[in-house]
Amino acid sequence: MTMTPKRVLFICTHNSARSPMAEAWLKRIGGPAFEVESAGLESGTLKPLAIEVMREVGIDLSGKTTQTVAEVLNAGRQFDYVIILCDPQKAERCPTFPGKVTRLYWDIPERPKSPAPVAEQLAHVRSVRDLIKEHVEAWIAENL
C-alpha cells in the first residue's frame, strides 16, 4: 500500500530565496513522502546568492522558476500544509487556501535591505539556508 504524499507549499515574500530553499530541502530530505512547491506573496526572481549557497550543498536551483501565491490559488492546487517563512506582519497578507490546510509560520529572517559587502550577504544567506534545513528536518521528524 502506497501512502499519498503530503502536499506542502512554502511561501515567502518574493519566492526568491527562502521558499525555494525550503522547497529544495524538503524535496531532498523528505523525498517522495512530499509533493512540494513554493510561491511568493509578490512576484520576484530567484536571487543569485540563493542559487550559489544551495549549490554549495549540492542542490541546483538554477532552473527554478518563481511563482506567486495568486498563481497557485488560480491554478486550483490544494495543499495539506502551507508554511509561511515571513515575519508575522507579512504573513498576515497570506491568503486562506481552500480545503483542510494546516498553516505554519517559521520566522525566517529576510536579508537586510541595507547594502552590505558580498561576503556579508553570502554569510547571511548561508545562515538562512542552514536555519531552513534545521526547520525542515525537525518538521519531517514530527510529520513522518
Plain-language structure description:
The chain has 144 residues and is of the alpha/beta class. The chain is 40% helix and 15% strand. The protein has 5 helices and 4 strands, in the order E-H-E-H-H-E-H-E-H. Strands 2-1-3-4 form a 4-stranded parallel beta sheet. The longest helix is centred in the last third of the chain and has 26 residues, at 118-143. The protein starts with 5 loop residues before the first strand and ends with a helix.
In short:
This protein has five helices and four strands. By secondary structure, it is an alpha/beta fold.
Task: Indicate the topology.
Elements: E1 6-12, H1 18-30, E2 34-40, H2 48-55, H3 69-74, E3 81-84, H4 88-91, E4 102-105, H5 118-143
Parallel strand pairs: 1-2, 1-3, 3-4
Helix pairs in contact: 1-5, 2-5
* Helix and strand composition category: alpha/beta
So how many helices?
A: 5
- Summarize the biggest pleated sheet: 4 strands, parallel
Mean pLDDT: 91
As for the CATH topology, it is: Rossmann fold
Rg estimate, integer Å: 15 Å
Question: What CATH architecture do you see?
Answer: 3-Layer(aba) Sandwich
Number of strands: 4
Total number of distinct structural domains: 1
Global outline? globular
Measured between the Cα atoms of the first and last residue, the distance is 16 Å
What are the secondary-structure elements, in order, as H or E? EHEHHEHEH
Report the oligomer: single chain
Strand order of the largest sheet: 2-1-3-4
* Strand content bin: 15-25%
What is the helical fraction, as a range of percent?
25-40%
CATH class placement:
Alpha Beta
- Say which CATH homologous superfamily is assigned: Response regulator
Unreliable stretches covering 5 or more consecutive residues: none
